[in-house]
Design brief:
The structure is a homodimer of 481-residue chains. Chain A has 481 residues and is α/β, with parallel strands linked by helices. Helices cover 40% and strands 14% of the residues of chain A. An 8-stranded mixed β-sheet of chain A has the order 4-11-10-9-8-5-6-7. In chain A, α2 crosses α3 and α4 crosses α13.
């Protein structure tokens, strides 16, 4: 053996190269189990290298279990169950096994489906200034460890903000910070336990049922009427936890009236294990009248779990959400979930804390309200002036970043989608979000205008007109008295 | 009615104040169900305010469902099931219900338990410079949406780094970025499915069994021998997925020899649903010989799931970890988990991508290796010179940031802990991490030196001497031949 040419060792140290040569011979079977290796001295002499190099190489091979030493007798190759290729010749990666290429830009010229906030309105200058301050001033805080529920600084800033702007009285201790509502919702399901059955709004935000499914949590779809989740269906279901967005239902935009809210709270009061998850997402974007106070603020019995996110109100790539737990669930969370480390970096928590407590956040919300309202008005006016006007009806345009456009059409929702694809636009339909295909949901478009730029509006309307041109033609041909 | 004094409205607009007064009267029962409200004109005149203000207040009350209008007849109070306190007088928060005060500094003067990296060695200047560059140059990327598996830029930087430094061939597509190993592990359990039974190392890293429990996943503890998880116990268990840290086992520090690695790989090969989760945490901190190549690099059958984190190698408050999925599991992940948004903010992903691809990360690792090695040597030398030397034995000191100190003591582990508490130090014992109290684990201390400052070492040893002073005295009293 030992005809290893030191010429090929490249940048590796002598001992490292020798180690690799011997390992390769063992793995490839050239050196077989039980075979004795040359003594350190012999090998050093043969290869004209130092004994120490050989010693180090042998030590590494022993450490990794390729060889073993027998006192007085020398070193022997271990019995590996079978030869395997060495690291260098490890299996080449087979990309063909993989589907789904890296994310590519959507080919659609317009996307009414993506409910994304217009990123360019994010107060980036302010945000990065705060980041810089945090970077230069809060060194220790950035590097310190973060409690399971997030930094106190952020939780207390939130607590103060929620009291002032949402009428919510929550101790910072009740607030749990997490990397996105989805994450918090997963944890919450674990706290609620495996016997939980969730009542989901139908139509509603699909993602929560997907998460429940992936967590093995059972749920019921409860139909909605104009006031929200139907109590009669709820009472007939075996659900013990409700998931609702009462201030701005997705996707219909319905505001749940006080009567229905009180009915749901009463339902929750009837049994100890009953709770209400209030998703307050986008609730501050209301263009007519006051912002609707959350259910949490009128809940006397600690039955409401409040959830909200900054990923929508600031920008999607900032993953910070929070939930407020009623004391009993909080204790359970502390007992069963507090071993999970907080998922949001200290750095961004501190930046957000300053952003809120220095008043930038509420200013940003007010600004976005104006911007979205203008966009909405642009779209609504364009619609009124378009041929779509006479065959359609607008619903729930006073909140959030979308409204419903119900079209009297002879097309099925499937046909509408197909025609939209022909026009290379992505359309969202109410029926996408409902399981029982009620007549009310058919032919109802969800117009998300958040990401729409003013100069796109005209084009947008034209394209939708194209989709429904037959219906428009029919409507026009009708004699008008 | 209508004796609302406009003096008290404070900063609120007239309509808003009127809305609140009427709502309060309805909720308190002063205005009862069915009662008719004054006409807009009358009320406007009585209160000497504009009709528009009354209209707006009524509109808001209608929107929120407190009143309803009957065409031609006016507005009437709705029948709420019961009066509830209004927002302003919502239930006061009861802090006494809450346990657990906000995180306070530990009273211990020394903590051998916390396995935390010494934060002050974090290359903060470099990191914040990169952050600033990202802030000023990568505006669009920071605000853009992030794919479920993380930004391609970070995944490809990782892919290149892993190939160069760990001999791992992984396509960026196989890498999933997440906010901490705990998070990724939760998701992974979901992908593996509810019939999964995990084989955990005993002793081992407790957190993974806690996570499994909270996810409802079953696991078996498999005893370790000096080479790692025992194959015979594994084969007798019904586990189909192994969780191991072969390159640097926690807490023993054992390096799994190639033989055992091949045996585990062979075990996995025997059935399609079998997998190995390789936790490669701290594997690069090896002070004698080469870094041990991971099992992933010798796995021919796509059976190994590779996991690692930056929270330990950089700083705990940066929550970025990753896992590499074999193609089959990757497809399943894409099918069932890709609806979950990535939990790490784009901003920190970009910063880390630059930190890795510009070579700062590997430089940082090498630097930490030196620093930890120096700390280790300090502690080892101090031990050798101390009275503890003659009653103790050091194990597995060549990797990671801790070693084992086995003390020949008459004290039980319980007594050791008690005595340590008296001395106000936090001690970790091997038996804390094992379920079967084998003789080997008794009297074995885990000395985490990562967070220990040089000037603390002397004190540290003295205190441990105090804990075992009786044993030391006994040893000294023995006649030495």
């Amino acid at each position: 053996m030992a005809n290893y040419s030191m010429k090929n060792r490249g940048s590796r140290t002598i001992y490292e190269y020798l180690y690799e040569c011997i390992r390769e011979d063992i793995l490839s079977g050239k050196l077989h189990a039980g075979e004795q290796l040359a003594s350190k001295r012999t090998l050093a002499r043969d290869l004209n290298i130092s004994v120490t190099s050989v010693e180090n190489a042998y030590a590494q091979l022993v450490l990794e279990g390729y060889i073993h030493g027998e006192t007085g007798r020398g070193f022997f190759v271990n019995d590996l169950i079978e030869p395997v290729p060495v690291r260098e010749s490890a299996r080449p990666f087979k990309p063909n096994i993989l589907r789904q290429p890296e994310a590519t830009a959507p080919e659609h010229i317009l996307d009414f489906k993506a409910n994304r906030s217009s990123v360019k309105n994010f107060p980036f200058a302010t945000w990065s200034r705060l980041m810089r301050n945090v970077l230069s001033e809060r060194n220790a805080a950035i590097l310190g460890t973060v409690p399971y529920n997030g930094l106190f600084e952020l939780r207390s800033a939130l607590s103060a903000y929620l009291y002032r702007h949402r009428g919510i009285e929550a101790d910072p201790e009740q607030i749990i910070i997490g990397a996105g509502t989805e994450y918090l919702y997963s944890r919450l399901l674990q706290v609620l336990g495996f016997n939980t059955i969730i009542a989901m709004e139908d139509p509603g935000y699909k993602k929560f049922s997907e998460i429940s499914a992936s967590q093995g949590t059972v749920w019921d779809y409860i139909p909605m009427d104009d006031e929200g989740m139907r109590i009669d269906y709820l009472k007939n279901s075996s659900a013990n936890v409700i998931h609702v967005s009462p201030s701005n239902h997705f996707p219909t935009g319905t505001v749940m009236p006080i009567t229905r809210r009180l009915q749901l709270l009463q339902w929750a009061r009837e049994k100890p294990e009953r709770y209400i998850i209030e998703d307050d997402y986008d609730s501050e974007l209301r263009y007519a009248g006051r912002v609707i106070p959350p259910m949490y603020a009128i809940d006397e019995d600690a039955k409401v779990i409040y959830m909200n996110t900054f990923s929508k109100s600031l920008v999607p790539s900032i993953r910070i959400s929070y939930m407020i737990l009623p004391p009993y669930l909080l204790e359970r969370y502390q007992d069963t979930m507090s071993f999970y480390s907080c998922t949001v970096s200290a750095f961004e928590q501190l930046t957000l804390a300053h952003f809120i407590s220095e008043g930038y956040f509420s200013r940003h919300i007010n600004r976005m309200k104006q911007i979205y309202k203008q966009k909405r008005d642009l779209v609504l006016n364009a619609l009124k002036e378009s041929d779509l006007h006479q065959i359609s009806e607008i619903r729930e345009a006073n909140a959030g970043t979308h409204f419903l456009l119900h079209v009297n059409t002879s097309l099925t929702d499937k046909q509408i989608k197909a025609k939209a694809e022909e026009q290379r636009i992505e359309l969202a339909l109410l029926s996408d979000y409902t399981t029982h295909q009620g007549i009310k949901s058919m032919g109802t478009l969800i117009i998300n205008y958040a990401g729409l730029e003013p100069d796109q509006v005209g084009l947008a309307i034209e394209i939708i007109e194209q989709v429904f041109k037959d219906d428009i033609a029919k409507a026009k041909s009708k004699p008008t008295f």
